[in-house]
Amino acid sequence: MHAVVARVTERIAQRSRDSRAAYLAGIDAMLARAVPQERMGCANLAHAYAALPGPQKIKLMVERAPNIAIVTAYNDMLSAHQPYHAYPDLLRDEAARCGATVQVAGGVPAMCDGVTQGTPGMELSLFSRDVIAMGTAIALAHDVFDGALLLGVCDKIVPGLLIGALHYGHLPCVFVPAGPMRSGLSNREKAKVRELHAQGLVGRAELLQAESAAYHSPGTCTFYGTANSNQMLLEAMGLVLPGAVFVHPDAPEREQLTRAALRTVLDIGRRGARFTPIGRLVDARCIVNAMVALLATGGSTNHLIHWVAVARSAGIVIDWTDFDELSSAVPLLARVYPNGEADVNQFQAAGGPLWVLRELLAAGLMHDLPSVHPGGLAAGARMAATASGDETVLRPVRRPFAPTGGLRLLQGNLGRAVIKVSAVPEDRLVVQAPARVFASQEELLAAFSAGGLREDMVAVLRFQGPRANGMPELHKLTPALSVLQDQGYRVALVTDGRMSGASGKVPAAIHVTPEALEGGPLARVRDGDLLRIDARAGTLDALVEAAEWQRRTPAPHPAPPPHGFGRELFANFRRNATSAEQGACTWL
Fold first, then answer.
1. Is the peptide bond before 249 cis (omega within 30 degrees of 0)?
2. Which domains can be identified in the chain, with CATH numbers?
3. What are the Dihydroxy-acid/6-phosphogluconate dehydratase N-terminal domain coordinates in residue numbering (predicted)?
4. What is the pLDDT of residue 475?
5. In this structure, what DSSP letter does residue 414 have?
């Protein structure tokens, strides 16, 4: 095991000793109970099984067959989740062949940041993760299940399902992916049209044509954003069948993999051959594997929030220092858009997640663990080819694209933040320029459209944290800032909000904590202050004389609390949310 990976894993385990012990004790208490058919009251069981066909009732009540819950994020609006419409019938059929039963225990909402980007609905996006976790808990609260199949793919959906499932850590759980759409207009071409539109050089019709050519059919979007990073992390944690995540929805093997997921959750159940409850599988080593996989592939910055919350759900405490230290040792093995030209279909063709796991395991950069697959993580990784199918997309550990991972911790008198460096040009890793302060992305975009940003600058976009407005993604800023950078200006973004998992070309210090609404340092910044972002040194500072800096009164929030589009329903979420580095959790 690599010394840094071993040291960080041990530090996390020691830090989490008490909370993890309490969590495992809770699992043991749940497992000490009798099977559902014995511990539940007759009326409870009758309600639970009332809608089942007679033969299935007999299986459950008399034969005491295993009963598997499906928690699904199906809807037919969003391309990534539309394929799930046929899964329950398929899984029921496979369960019948195996002498088991399946019930759809509940559905969870699935919203798409691509649809809500730049709209008021985006302010519900981050907290939808905790709503999904709560929905998962409600679905499993009926307590008549021997295991669960989790059907979800995208940004907040996978973390939400995982958080909810870990609060039922005594159950074996398997994620069932749906796969990406086939390649359409390339991500680079799509981004170029967006930049031309931002400059007024192409119209809305041309932009819509390009977007529709990129997003064109069922399946996950093809860039390596948060949704597809989710899939990489699930592979690294051993929570999916090896190699399943990037198989297309219409590929013949997709049905085979879905049926195999049902057989797998039975096999790792209490009555199966390899009892593996999810709460025991997801330990400190498993969380470190997810962190390493994220870094090695240049994945989404959103996971520096989401996986902190996932870890907390299993009694494990991680922070951004852990990510940063791992990043110093984990090489960048993948170039997938926005960190390269390839999309996830080319990533899969070059070897995909299993090839990455094989390399990391062989180099001692990842823990070999039990997984939902017989033989554990290494056995699944051995299914990958021994060599990359395309070294412009995937490279071995001995010849990486970069010697360190794609994420860095920044800290200084502006607070703590993270930056994704894997897609930032080398000459833009340090930006020192005057501040331009904004309180909304609309204000920034209006200044760009008016031609008022043609200068070196650090755009400070504050009051975008969890407690201010739910911490929306600010991806709508990417085309404008990219245009300024391409025109030769030295520009950067500093914000207590989030950027999309598809962002990265422009240096962006994001998730700044403490957030401005809580009196964080961003609230002290004024137009014209000289700011310095140094991704090499890991610093984030306002170059303001210390006494002057301390004298300043933090600026008040310039807007009333968010209202409309249901945002008022989330007032308690905003009020109780922890900081970004603590996972922006609303339930701690």
1. no
2. 3-33+65-187+196-381 (no CATH), 407-582 (3.50.30.80)
3. 66-373
4. 86
5. T
